[in-house]
Amino acid sequence: MFCFQCQETAGNKGCVKAGVCGKNAQVANLQDLLRYVTSGLSEVTTALRNEGKKVDVKVNHLVTTNLFTTITNANFDADAIVKRIRNTSAIKKELLAHVADKSKFSEAALWDAGELSEMEEKAKTIGVLSTENEDVRSLRELIAYGLKGLAAYVKHANVLGKENEKIDAFIQSALVKIRDNSLSVDELIALTLETGNQGVAGMALLDEANTSTYGNPEITKVNIGVRKNPGILISGHDLRDLEMLLEQTKGTGVDVYTHSEMLPAQYYPAFKKYDNFAGNYGNAWWKQKEEFESFNGPILMTTNCIVPVKDSYKDRLFTTGAAGYPGCKHIAGEIGEQKDFSDIINLAKTCQPPIEIESGEIIGGFAHHQVEALAEKVVEAVKSGAIKKFIVMSGCDGRMKSREYYTDFAKALPKDTVILTSGCAKYRYLKLPLGDIQGIPRVLDAGQCNDSYSWAIIALKLKEIFQAADINDLPIEFNVAWYEQKAVIVLLALLALGIKNIHLGPTLPAFLSPNVANVLVSSFGISGISTVEEDVKIFCG
Ligand code: FSO
Ligand code: SF4
User: Fold this and answer.
1) Interaxial angle between packed helices 116-123 and 25-50, expressed in degrees from 0 to 180 and rounded to the nearest 10
2) Closest residue (by CA) to atom 2 of ligand 1?
C-alpha cells in the first residue's frame, strides 16, 4: 500500500504498512482498485456523452458513492469494497456495449473484476506510486482528492433530490484525464483550477439542497448536556439520514443526539420540531473512543470519520451509506431510498441513558442567510472599528498534538477580531469563553465543512458593500486547518474564487511535491503556519 491522502499520513510522507487512520494494507489497495475501476467506468460514460448519449443518474451516483467510500475514515470493510468493485465492473461492461467507437479505450475501461486474488494483484500495479514523475503524481493526486471531496458533497445533494449532470460529467472526465499520460503539467494545473470551480458549483448545489429542504440555518443555542432517556448518537454529515432517524424515533421514548459534524443540523428550522432531538454530545471525530463509550446507546455513522472501533461498543456502532466497518451492522439504502433504522431504535430502548460529559450550551447557525440578516450590525461594527478583522478558521480537527496551535491561536487573537468557522475545526474554539463584540459572538459557526461556502458568499457580499476592488482587500484572513479530502475541495474552491494568502496547517499536504507547492505559493500566496505569536502578528499587525 501507499497512501498519503490525509494530513495524518505517516511521517508526513506516506503510509506504507498500515494507515495511521487504522486502514490495513488490503483495504488501502482495494480502495485504490475501486478508484481505478470507477475511473474505467468514467471513461465509458465520458465516451457515451461524447457520442451524444445520456448517462443514467444511477451511474453518476455510483461514481460519487465509490469515491466517497475511499475518503479517509469512511470505509474499513474489505468485503464491502470488493462488492463495489465487482458491481462497478459489471455496470461498466454493460455500458461498454453501447459505445460505438471502442478503439480508444485504456486498460482501465476494459479491465474486468475477477477473483479476489486477481484483484489484489491488479491493485498493486495501479496505486499512487505507479505515476513515476513526482510533479505529475502530485497534481494527479491533488485533483483526485479534490474530486473525492466534491463527490461527497454531490452525494449529499443527491440524497436530497438535487442533481447536476454537468458536475457529474466533470468528475468523470477528470478521473479519466488524471490517468492520461499525454496531459502536460500545465494542463494538469488548469484541471486543478477547474476542479476548484466545480467545487464552488458542488458546494452551491449542496447549499441549495440543504436550505430548500430544511430551511435556512438560524442562530441557535444547542444543549451539550444530556437528558434522562436512552439515546441514539448520529455522526457524519448526512442530513437526510438524520431526518429519517428523527421521523422513526418520534414518540418512542428514545432521544437523538448529534455528534461532531452532525452538530450543524441543530441550526436548521426543519429539525427543531422534533421533541426528542436532544442536543449535541461530544466533540470532533477523533475523541470518539471515549465519547462513544460513555454515550451508552447506539451510534450511527452516516459518512466518514470512523476511528477504529473498540470492542466495548462495536455491537452498538452502525454504518450506512458510503461508511462501513467490519463487524458493525450496515443499514442498507441507496440514494433516494427509505432506510429502516428499527434495529438501532430497538437496541437503544435496551440501553442506559448517556453519561453527561459536559453541560451548558453552544451557539451557532451563522450561515450566509443569517449573517446577511445581521449585515447592517456587522458592517457598522467594522466601520466603527469595533471589529478590526475576521479570521476564517474553517476545516478539520485531528488528533495530533500540533493542532493545539489552533486553540492557542484563537485565545491569543486580539478582542476586536471575529473567528468565522465551519467544519469540525470549530471544536477547538467553539466552547471557549471568547465573548462578543456589540452582541456579535467572537466565534461564528456557519456549519459543516461544506458550509465554508458561506464564508465565500459573505466575503463577496462584503466586497460589494465596501466597494472593494479585490476580495483580498477586505479585512478577512484565512487560517485554515485540513485533514481529509473534503478540505482539499474546499481549499481548491477558495482558490478558484480568487482568495489569496491562505494559511494551511498544521502541515502542508505530503502529496504536494516541492514544485507543485511552489506553484501554489507563487500563484496564490499559500503558506503554512508558524508559531501562535508570529501568526497573530502576521494576521493582526
Ligand atoms: Fe471534519 Fe471529518 Fe467535515 Fe471532514 S468531521 S474531518 S473535512 O470528515 O468532513 O469537517
Ligand atoms: Fe495514511 Fe491518511 Fe491514507 Fe489513512 S487515509 S492510510 S492515515 S494517508
Assistant:
1) 80
2) 305
Q: Which atom of ligand 1 is nearest to the CA of 304?
A: 8
Residue 261 in contact with ligand 1 by CB distance below 6 A:
yes
Q: Quick one: average pLDDT of 307-332?
A: 98
Of all atoms in ligand 2, which is nearest to the CA of residue 510?
8
pLDDT in tens, 38-84: 999 999 999 999 999 999 999 999 999 999 999 999 999 999 999 99
Angle (deg, nearest 10), helices 185-214 and 134-158 = 20
Fold of 220-349: Rossmann fold (3.40.50)
Ligand 2: nearest atom to the Cα of 15: 1
- For the cut 90, the answer to whether the pLDDT of residue 541 exceeds it is no
Residue 364 CA to residue 224 CA, distance in Å, equals 13
This model of the complex carries an ipTM of 0.95
Instruction: Over range 224-236, report the average pLDDT.
Output: 98
What are the helix (H) ranges across 159-184?
A: 165-177
| CB neighbour list of residue 494: distance below 8 Å, 6 or more residues apart | 196, 452, 456, 478, 480, 502
- How far does the centroid of ligand 1 lie from the alpha carbon of residue 381, in Å? 32
Residue 160, ligand 1, Cβ within 6 A: no
Query: What does the alpha-carbon distance between residue 101 and residue 117 come to, in Å, rounded to a whole number?
Result: 32
- 426-437 average pLDDT score: 97
The predicted-structure confidence for 482-524, as pLDDT tens digits, reads as follows 999 999 999 999 999 999 999 999 999 999 999 999 999 999 9
| Ligand 1 neighbourhood includes 77 CB (under 6 angstroms) | no
Q: What's at 270, amino acid-wise? A: A
Q: How far is the CA of 29 from the centre of ligand 2 (A)?
A: 12
Which protein residue's CA is at the shortest distance from atom 6 of ligand 2? Answer: 19
Chosen CATH of 371-540 out of 2.102.10.10, 1.10.8.60, 3.40.50.2030, 3.20.20.80: 3.40.50.2030
Q: Residues of CATH 1.20.1270.20 domain(s) within the chain?
A: 10-213
C-alpha cell at 368: 450566509
Give the pLDDT confidence score for residue 24 in this predicted structure. Answer: 98
Best of 8, 13, 26, 512 for a ligand 2 pocket test (most atoms within 8 Å of beta carbon): 8
Q: Which of 2, 16, 23 has most ligand 2 atoms within 8 Å of its beta carbon, as the pocket-test mutant?
A: 23
Residues in contact with ligand 2 (CB, 6 Å cut-off): 3-6, 8-9, 15, 19-21, 23, 28, 72
Closest listed residue to residue 133, CA positions, set 170, 72, 178: 178
CATH topology of domain 10-213: Substrate Binding Domain Of Dnak; Chain:A; Domain 2 (1.20.1270)
